[in-house]
Amino acid sequence: MTDLTLLADMPRLLLEAQLQPLQGSRFQPTGFPDLGAAAYDGPDGTPMMLVESAQSVANRLEACCWDTANNAWETPLTGLPYIAVIDKNGRPLTNSILEAHRINSAYILEGKDKTILNQLKKELDTLA
Fold first, then answer.
1. Mind listing the pLDDT tens digit for each residue in 58-76?
2. Residue ranges per structural domain of the chain
3. What is the pTM of this model?
4. Which position among 17, 29, 40, 102 has the lowest Cβ density within 10 Å, counted as fewest Cβ atoms?
């Protein structure tokens, strides 16, 4: 087993890997509707392609941190803040961890409770 204790005090981890598609010979790189695939030139001019965005990786990591059966953080993360969206009977509908755009989700910003929207307007001041 690999000893990962050396990473305990490291602020970040950079991995480099040779990848190949699991099925067939194609893959779908990260793309943006108005820009297309995330292609760019590296510092030395080498053509590069972003395969996965930081936001997408964060989404996947957050999914691993959420206990779906209990509708809560996994135990080591209990206490971290999030916004819960509940129905009129108090049953959970979604939350800021599960929503793709977090607190920018329509379920959070455009619901009957405008607390979060008003707080954002106040803090950003330009929307007030």
1. 878 888 899 999 999 999 9
2. 35-124
3. 0.56
4. 17
